[in-house]
Amino acid sequence: MAHKYAKEGYKICVGDIDNEAGNALVSDLKKEYDVEGFYLNCNVRLEDSLQKVADQLLVEWGGVDVVINNAGVAASARIEDGSMEDWDWILDINLLGVVRGCKIFTPIFKKQKSGYFINIASMAGIVYLPMMSSYNASKAAVVALSETLKIELQDDNIGVTVVCPSFFKTNIGEAMRSSDERKKVLNKLAERSPISAEDVADMVFDGHQKNEFHVVTHKKGRTAFWMKKILPIEMFHKQLYKQINKYKKIKKEE
Fold first, then answer.
1. For the segment 122-157, what is each residue's pLDDT rounded down to a tens digit?
2. I need a surface site. Which of 5, 166, 211, 218 has the fewest CB within 10 A?
3. Which is the catalytic residue, given 5, 33, 116, 135?
4. Is 135 annotated as catalytic?
5. Which CATH number fits domain 42-253: 3.40.50.720, 3.40.50.1820, 3.40.50.150, 3.40.50.620?
């Protein structure tokens, strides 16, 4: 996302808790695109941390055009096995991190009479796979939050796009809380993705320019999205159950 927006001529502020990776990314952006950019340490679990970022951006730039709420983590477990600690961790980052980002930057957008939020959810926020309850719930809430803000902020000339990708290769697996076997399965699904992070970034940028609400990046994801809209829910659940069992059979044969 940072590379795509830098390529399109945007100034970039990268916020993260990984100082080394954040500074390295900004260095790459400056070399490759000759754009203005900088890195700020930002913990989305702390409202004060996000407020400091917003305050500094006002000093540096005088305003902000686009906020991408992208921080995310994952866990995989059956409902009886997942810990409440994992639930707190995921909801605090995946959901409340987005809430804090929107809360902090909305007053800035309103004052300048323009702005755009891009909230990164997941296909897991629309179609719910088993053993991913905490992740599914957090991403479904991001979709609901985004839809709320789409209407709530419309009169203030503030746009909202929610991004719902299926599996593709990212570094989210590095911090994932799950069994090694489950991690292998999810990593394999990501590696088999027909699209890359660069492809996703292109789709998101295009969706932003067109002011689209949903950006569903994968073809199979779009099919599932529309099936869920059209089919009676019991019929959709049967189809989903059939697909999951089909995948289990393939996995067993492997």
1. 998 998 888 889 999 999 999 999 999 999 999 999
2. 211
3. 135
4. yes
5. 3.40.50.720
